[in-house]
Write a structure and sequence with these properties.
This protein has one domain. Helices cover 27% and strands 25% of the residues. The protein is built from seven helices and ten strands. Strand 5 and strand 6 form a beta hairpin. It starts with 11 loop residues before the first strand and ends in a 9-residue tail after the last helix.
Amino acid sequence: MQGSARTDRGTVGGPRGWRPAAAAVVVALASFGAVAHAAVETGTGHPKHNIEAKPDYRASCAGYHSNSSGCITKALAAIDRARSMEDVRPMVLPDNFTKLSYAEQTFVVTNLERVDRGLPPFRGITHKLNKTAKQAATANVDPAPAYSVVGEFLVLDYQSNWTSNFGPLAGDYGWMYDDGYGSYNVDCASPSAPGCWGHRDIILTKYTKPGLISGVGSEKQNGLVSIAQLFVAGKGQHPTFTYTWRQALRHGADGYRHS
């Protein structure tokens, strides 16, 4: 986010926002930007309208219960119902999902949204990007890297999302399926506003650069989880990852076990 311009869009990050319909006041913002001008396009279209979460997972996930069987069962059912409207297959989490950190869970879920629509996954999350995202999550703002390299990896493009919600699955639902006109997306004040479905567009962006890496940070705040994610494209040697997509696949993410 740049200054106090809470609805601006810019080349190095401009905020978007949404508020899920919940008893608690929940604020979620997202931004996107580019370190260098590049061809960027979204991978899929938008839903015709916001999709009501059925079953309603909020009560089961509230109060840091996002890893409970009740929360995961209901949140996945709501996500899969929304996915079925796009003819996208059900989401398959890794078998160790509840043992992962919020940051790792978010990385897995956003990658599943991509690969199940035929988009390439981000390779992994790295310490430097995680640190930047963690600072943003603490401050409740969109993360923006103040550097152009991560190790020997050259950052050429980036986009970012931020949310405060009941955990990674709830955050994903808001980003992907409840971000249009009539939601709490503050950049979607009219049906034709450019900020409508901005979070979804960020997750499903296609990149022209060959290397895709990510960073995620989270912090518990007043019964909610603040989560910030960086989506970075560039080139060069990939940095050392703290967690990788390959690790998720080894535990059955996407329904297949990969060695």
